[in-house]
Amino acid sequence: MTARRSRRGRTASSAGGSRRTRRAALAALLAAAGAPTALADPDASPAARGTTTLADPDASPAARSPTTLADPDASPAARASTTFADPDASPAARASTTFADPDASPAARGTTFADPDASPAARGTTIDASLDPQFFALAGWSVGVGLWTSLPQLRITAKTFSLRFPKLFLGDANDGWSVRHYAAAVGAHYFLSLHHGGLFAGAQVTAQDAIYRRGDGSAKHIEVAAAPTIGYQWFPSSLGLFITPYIEVPVFLVRPDAAVADHKFHYARFLVSPSVSIGWQH
Question: Which of 36, 47, 160, 197 is 20 to 30 Å from the Cα of 138, by its Cα?
Answer without folding.
Answer: 197
